[in-house]
Records
---
Amino acid sequence: MSLVFSKSFDLFKAAKWILRKDIRSCLSSLPEKVEKTNADEDEMTRIGRRPRSQNPMLEYRHIYPEFLPDPNPNWRNSLREKLERADMLERRKQIDIPEFYVGSILAVTISDPHAQGKTNRFVGICIERKGCGLRAEFTLRNVVDHQGVEVRYELYDPTIQTIQVLRLEKRLDDKLYYLRDALPEYSTFPVDMDPEILPEGTAVPVNPVQVKLKPRPWLERWERQELKGVSNIEEHLKEKDRVRRELRKTPWEKYDLMKQYRKTVPIEDQNEIWGEVYNQLQQMRMSTKKTARKRVITAPKSQLG
């Protein structure tokens, strides 16, 4: 009896060893599949095609960031957010609010009862875009008569008549406040600037220009901010400024997952929001593209005799 039990136990151990070996061989083949997938994505990127995302609606969070609510749960109200989204869609049916980013050059025309033609037009570079819902706003900056001028607009202000994108592009930083301390040529744009139209299907270009700051004093301590669009910060710093910058660095914040979570809206809420407004926004984009194709663009005629 004991001999039979020992033989059966040995057979059980042998079967267990064979099963483990098979599992290890299966797991060893998984990285090859992952590497093959990554190679396919690199090949698609090389030939100019982006790999298809899982949810195309989530790409709208960069084009229409104001539709996402405030990530702070203390300011969340589902009923107010739903009503605001309905108002925003109705407003977009009245005027065309184009796609733009921080760094794009815009021309905004608003109703002004005190102006000569009852309208006022301002051209400038977008240095900030913030807010959510009907409280979304953006700021334009331009240098007029050697004086820096900034105008802040509410995106869904009923006095806005047109928003025209003269140059669609992005910059290296999310905010361009440092243009206030930069040389004037980086913020100077002609009032009669002609629009630069990108071919259809072209990705939004990123302008890699790095501005030069004027000598101190500055409005903010730009050396303590990780700015990619400024080239000559180190030229205006003293040794004590560099020491203070090192003391105030917080490199551990990029590993703080809870801090990143508090600054973002849960993916479930985003799917619900985009599922509500995706169809209407897509129809508006298609109608805008059809109108742009019908528009005839002529080169400006020379005024010289």
---
Amino acid sequence: MDNKTALTFTMTAYAVMENYKHWMFTVFLLLYLIIIILNIVLITVIHQNKELHQPMNVFSCMLSINEIYGSTALLPSVMAVLLSETYEISVKWCMAQVYFLHTYASAEFSILAVMGYDRYVAICYPLYYHSIMSNSKVVKLLALAGVYPIVVFGSFYSLTIQLGFCGKVMPKLYCVNMELVRNSCSPASYISIVGLVLLLFLVVPQVLMIVFSYVQISRVCMKLSRESQYNALKTCIPHLLSLINYTIGSLFEIIQTRFNMSHVAVEARIFLSLYFIILPPIANPV
């Protein structure tokens, strides 16, 4: 471990911004402040108004906390590297950033899945909503959404942290697990295979929960009046928009990580790689 922490990775993507890095620093700083302010405002408004202490709003608060966590793991680091002369990052921080960003991404999807389940209960069982979504049930769902990604990804990441790193190039603005593996001193293709299996555990249960919830909501809505259908749709739209927005950003990042994207302009790849960590934390509280 001492050998690993003495090494650094060169973040080659920053070279594209060499001529306007101070302007980009200002942009990232403003984005970070906007994310922090918007999400803190949302948490504060819900906390100070007792009538808003409903399960859906509690889940929204957890989503905001996770988005502050994710953006803090990325944007201050991006700004620090931008101001450096060498565009280097220590292996120790790089490994920590991989853990922070991957657990943020996994927790975000888990929270959105729990919010979908909450909408299912609210629309399909309105008379029993408060008895089903009791305080203890909400706490259990929050714990599941928070702890499950940490345990599952942590188990997988234990394979990566045992590697030694001989490569020194990280072709992104931030560190991701597969790039760490590519920089290892010995072939570690098994980690890529395990990563694909892990992806199933981190995505499939949540997808099944969301699909089940909205299939049941659609089935119930078919039997409702036009006005009730409109109210149900109005209840679901914020969640659906957040879900679609985050899914698009995640797909961009997964595709870039797993496939050769050298045919795509570097600027486009940079924007797409930042989508999942910047746009949802701004759009969701709004």
---
Amino acid sequence: MLQKVSLPMYKFAKSLCVLNKAHHVRLLSSAVNQEHNFFFRQLFDTVSSTYTYLLADKRTKEAVLIDPVLEHAERDATLINELGFKLIYAMNTHMHADHVTGTGKLKSLLPGTRSIIGKASGAQADIHLVDGDLVTFGEYQLQAAATPGHTNGCLTYIFNQQSMAFTGDTLLIRGCGRTDFQEGSSERLYLSVHNRIFTLPDHYTLYPAHDYKGQTATTVAEEKKYNPRLTKTLQEFIHIMDNLNLPYPKMIDKALPANRVCGLY
């Protein structure tokens, strides 16, 4: 169910990280507000360094999955079934260029699942979100905040009830998404981060779509203090982004056409 409402905030507690070498998956289980029936797990794809997030209400069994990867759709579906959850939404933070989304595959593996992406992405989905929309699963809700700059359709999913946010490629741990392709704009990304993410409470935990150095999460306070790009002035940031000289994304020619049609190609 999608609504526009304001929500209370609750505390976020400790997490435990486990490396599963056999399946090349990094897992992060979190004992977050167990008394409020919340379940959280972070999964990892070693090829694209993509994080996928499973969130669920343990009482109603309703679950959502953020940024699934096609090659791990069976893994994710198996886990969801083992835990007794019903996946109601498979969501993307944006139209990815470095991997093919697993949303379409998950819809076939787990009937009843609906796909979600930002309306400004231009990609197909069952539900298109705009700024301020809420995604509800059980007693929990994620608020979609438009954070363009990496792409036009980038969304950050803010989870006020657990004091966390899922930032996609807009804000990474001590970094940010590139802005030199796919409607990228350094100025828009900078403003998105400063106006929509850095304005969240300092204690909010931030979960990115990727990490390339083995870190799993950060906080608003950390990034406001230590992010080497986004602590600069706007003009300094634009200069940094204009001079990264990054290689052409190796998966973009395959990923973008596939992700425009929910990963089914």
